[in-house]
Design brief:
The chain has ten helices and twelve strands. With 314 residues, the protein is α/β, with parallel strands linked by helices. The strands form two sheets. Strands 1-2-3-4-5-6-7 form a seven-stranded mixed β-sheet. Strands 8-9-10-11-12 form a five-stranded mixed β-sheet, covered by helices on one side.
Length: 314
């Protein structure tokens, strides 16, 4: 996408937050914050597990006597604030960083953490997308500039477990949802699940279709996610505040409703522009439309996926 953000860094970085734009898809007008004034907030979830919340994707932190595990790494501009927040949790170094997926607001700090000694872990797909982006020879200081240390060195095929800080950390490879390379992390003893961008809490999602994302995959995934949760499970979403399993059910219902409305428009022969002009999500906007993804962009994502599927079946 092409947000109206001044400067090369802003446009490149924000383009990596969301799926590539099909012709005519409405742009998102998103501005990067003043990094000096951007806080990193620490939410202590118990059992050594914390959630760091800031402008980009939420970070999971598991602190133990022999080192720290991070799940996702935020923007590189926030590296100093993230490391300061981590040091208040534990004096131990960050030894592992797990990437839930490839987008820059979750992986931007990877190279900096690797230089400080962390091992980067991702899915095969996430590693492949990062490698491909680095081959574009983006200028130094911009997203995915060539940096061998920012490429994950361990990849997860079906899943894996780590045993750290008295916790069993289960890394789960999920079917295509936000992308086709999403990882979800489950902190077993703490009863915490970190979803990456397979689940946003409180606002419309992005679905990275060019990299295997699908609305039906997102909707189906929430059945599995709900079943993984108990009544007291805390969920660290990709973006937004800590959530519960009931929040997952509500979110799934919202996405089903969006899909149903768009599917009816496609079946009726409406064009994408006609669909957007009809404002079919106005009633949902009050609860879900107040963040980065707005109604026109979500409608375009879903319309393009369903229209393409219809074309394959004709």
């Amino acid at each position: 996408m092409k947000p109206s953000t001044p400067g090369l860094l802003g446009s490149l970085a924000l383009a990596c937050l969301f799926s590539a734009v099909a012709a005519g898809r409405p742009p998102e007008n998103i501005e990067l914050p003043d990094w000096n004034k951007t806080p990193v907030e620490d939410h202590d979830l118990g059992h050594g597990v914390h959630m760091l919340e800031s402008f980009g994707g939420n970070i999971g932190v598991l602190a133990g006597e022999n080192g720290v595990l991070l799940v996702d790494a935020e923007w590189p501009q926030l590296y100093g604030k993230v490391t300061a927040a981590v040091s208040r949790i534990s004096p131990q170094p960050v030894r592992y960083v797990i990437d839930t997926h490839w987008h820059w607001d979750h992986t931007g700090g990877d190279g900096l953490f690797a230089r400080a000694g962390a091992v980067l872990i991702s899915s095969e797909q996430t590693r492949r997308y990062i490698v491909a982006e680095q081959k574009n020879d983006n200028p130094a200081g911009t997203p995915y500039a060539r940096d061998p240390l920012a490429i994950p060195v361990i990849t997860v095929a079906d899943g894996m477990k780590l045993h750290l800080a008295g916790q069993t950390v289960e890394v789960i490879r999920v079917p295509p949802a936000h992308t086709d390379g999403d990882l979800v992390v489950r902190y077993i003893e703490a009863d915490v699940i970190q979803t990456g961008d397979t689940f946003f809490h409180g606002f419309y999602p992005d679905i990275d279709q060019p990299h295997g994302g699908t609305i039906d995959g997102m909707i189906a995934w929430y059945d599995t996610l709900y079943e993984m949760c108990g009544p007291n499970t805390r969920i660290i979403p990709g973006h937004g505040p800590v959530a519960s399993r009931e929040d997952v059910r509500e979110y799934q219902g919202m996405l089903r409703e969006v899909r149903n409305r768009v599917a009816k428009a496609v079946a009726a022969g409406m064009t994408e522009d006609q669909l957007i002009a009809s404002h079919p999500l106005d009633d949902l906007d009050a609860k879900w439309g107040g963040n980065l993804i707005k109604q026109p962009y979500l409608l375009a994502i879903v319309y393009e996926e369903l229209k393409e599927r219809q074309g394959r079946h004709n």
